[in-house]
Amino acid sequence: MVEYSKNNSEIDYLHFWLSDALNTQCECENCKDTIPSDFYVMMLNEIDEKLARAGLDTKIVFLIYFDLLWEPQKERIKNPDRFVMMFAPFSRTYSKAYAESDLSGRAPLAPYERNRLVMPRSVEENVARLRR
User: Fold this and answer.
1) Rounded distance, CA 14 to CA 2, Å?
2) Structural domain tally of the chain?
């Protein structure tokens, strides 16, 4: 990403997304105790550090979808000014508008369960995930 940003200085926002698949997370001893969103934040922070060392101000767009709807448990983004979050609740129902929904973020939420996720369907559940 650093080389790409150096060679394409006209790009202000570069997207960095993970897998387009559900319930395909590694279950090995090294991975099983860390949820995907924590791994994602680790990668985002590493990208930020490398871009900063190279003197690049490229913004990184990261995506919240699939397993990444479950918020990180341990990691936090160190430099929020570098990033733009894109919320993509692909599993939501389109039979109910956001304007007709309770957007307080108080909907009950299922815990993260590696490779056994049931995606949120309602607007309320998805907004609660976004708020967390």
Assistant:
1) 11
2) 1
- Provide the 8-state DSSP code for 34: S
Cα(63)–Cα(86) distance, integer angstroms = 5
Residue 111 neighbours by CB distance under 10 Å: 6
Q: Which residues contact 54 (CB under 8 A, 6 or more apart)?
A: 2, 5, 6
Residue 90 has phi, psi (to 5 degrees) of: -60, -25
* Distance of alpha carbon 123 from alpha carbon 41, whole angstroms: 25
At 84-102, the pLDDT tens digits run 999 988 787 778 787 788 8
Each residue of 35-56: pLDDT tens digit?
A: 999 999 999 999 999 999 999 9
Count of CB atoms situated within 10 Å of the CB of 93: 13
Range of the domain at 111: 2-131
Q: Which amino acid is at 18?
A: L
pTM of this prediction? 0.91
